[in-house]
Amino acid sequence: MVARVRSGAGMREVSRQFDVSLSVVQRWVSRAADQRLDRVDWSSKSTSSGRAHNRTAVDVEALVLAVRQYLAEQSELGEYGAEAIRAELVERRVSNPPSVRTIGRVLERNGVLDGRWRVRRPPPPKGWYLPEVRAHRAELDAFDTVSGLVIAGGPEVVVLNGISLHGGLVTSWPREAMTAVLTASLLTEHWQRFGRPGYAQFDNDTIFQGPHHYLDVIGRVSRTCLQLGVVPVFAPPREPGFQAAIESYNGRWQAKVWSRFTHKNLVELCHRSDRYVSAVLRRAAVRIESAPARIPLSHDAKVDLQARPAGIIIFIRRTDHGGRVLLMGRNFLVDSRWPHRLIRAEVDLDRETIQFFALRRREPQLQPLLATRPYALPRRTFRADD
User: Fold this and answer.
1) Which of 18, 151, 222, 270 is the most buried (most CB within 10 A)?
2) What is the pTM of this model?
3) What is the pLDDT of residue 337?
């Protein structure tokens, strides 16, 4: 462009030829001036002043940093954050002291903050702690109860909720009371209607797991799952994330069914709950179809609670300071080099062993085997209260 102007062409003509504005041609011609073209600095230059007009003055920033250093070394309280710095500036009667927020930005800009920003990592995939579920080869149904709901002038209500991890297949059963017998019956009915998943996950409530005051207990719900070909999985106590899907559905059910309407009796509550579940299933139809296949369960399937349990039970647990975990009422050493860490314990009732696998949310695909311990379930008659 500059060469064409120097050869005698008008600037407007050159701007039309190169399809740029007139100001662009004028700027580059002015930049070149009378210099040889091979000696002109053609690099782009910012038109800004290089410093924001409303940025804190240099001398004020220097004062803030000096006061921080003074407080860090001399303060009796040992406090030298933004609030302490501003209080010191006020005490020194500095005119127009910067606000706490401005002081904080000054400290951050100069890299003198002691705190560290929390690193936000992407969440692990769904069911990351179970390889088959993580790989989308098997479905997992999560179940939980909601208690403490009271109908005005009526009974207390307990709701057993369930949701599939990949498909979002939901179910809800409001009842006056929820027992292990009723839970096992409802799960069987649900799986006969929709097909059984590969895994069923529960918390550690006695309804699901069985009594905690006995050794080697396999409760009614676990025995039912094992006989129907479903692997029971017990989530770790007081650990976030593992029950997120079912806890989210618990909240939705309470907001959209329980809190939304006034229910005269349990029958009316069950009717509204069934309508809500049907609506959710219709909306999630595509997602349900794309989920891992569920295995059909015969309507005449029978469960023999006295039969010796066979199959695998999975416990997700966190080791203690010595690398040990409590399972089946017994303490097992996993690995002393894996303290306070998550593990997956697979109780193989057929091989009479327990395998312990390391779990890390940062690397969900790496789940090395830490230890294998012998475990034989004692032979005894199943009791109704187990």
Assistant:
1) 222
2) 0.72
3) 94
